[in-house]
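Changelog entry: the 2-dehydro-3-deoxy-6-phosphogalactonate aldolase record was regenerated in this release. Current contents:
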Amino acid sequence: MSRNLIAILRGIRPDEAESVTSVLIDAGITDIEVTLNSPEPLESIAIMSHQFAADARIGAGTVLTVDDVENVAAAGGQFVVSPNCNSQVIAATRRLEMASYPGVLTASECFMALQAGATALKVFPAVIMGYAGLQAIRAVLPRGAQVFMVGGVDQHNFTDWISAGADGFGIGSALYKPGKSLTDIARDAQAMVSAFDRISGHG
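Regenerated structure tokens:
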């Protein structure tokens, strides 16, 4: 069973896609997102999807249009993450049999996303909602709705977020940024996996 941890690779290039993905998988992170504002993102997604189809789910982030969704599917992507809640993007994603993680921040956006067929909710930016805000939203969400926190989260605050009702996390610059060495990515990924497993009881 994969962990509810999504590695957000903003700025990754196709020539490093394979090596970075391999390091993340070895550390135990198997949901890996390439943002569409990266250099040649669809090429990276295609490389990663082809090379690691048996070991990871590769998806795209910063997906804003239906055309984007279709391009991600054609490249072999398996999930779509957006910074906003767009019902057309959600519907297109689900129609193409990919998982949908739309960005939400308010109760209205949460329910709109779920009604449109979202697989899980991506609260973004998490730092704006805060722990008390997540607890309040959780009180009205349907039982079983999955909530991922993104934006300002890392292994140091996993405990507080999970206590407030989070199911998982999207990790960006705390895990990867252009120029970061594979050694440092591996170290930080392992620390996050260890923290998540300890707190969530994974495994």
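Helices lie at 14-27, 41-51, 66-74, 87-95, 107-116, 126-138, 158-164, 182-200.
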